[in-house]
Amino acid sequence: MDDRPPEKMDDEVGRKEDRKLKARGRERGVWFGFGMFGLVGWAVAVPTMLGVMLGLWLDRKWPASFSWTLTLLFVGVLLGCVNAWFWVKREMREE
Question: What is the domain count for the chain?
Fold first, then answer.
C-alpha cells in the first residue's frame, strides 16, 4: 500500500494526466506531412511495381491475347490506392 497522503496522489495523477493530454494534442508539422506523403507514395508504388514484375513474367511464360503486364499494373495501382486510403483513414482516426 502507498504511504503517501491522498492529496499528494491526486496532485501526481493530475500532473500525469495533464502531461498525457498535452502530448496527445501536439500539432503535426511539415515533417509529419512529408512522412505521410512518402508513406502513401510507397503504399501505392510497391504493389504497382510487384504487379508489373509479375505481369512481365506472365507475359513471357504464358502469352495471351491481352497484356498481363497492363492488367496487373492496373490491379497494383488499385490495390495500392486502397492500401493508401486505409493508412490515411487510420491516421485521421488517431488524430
Answer: 1
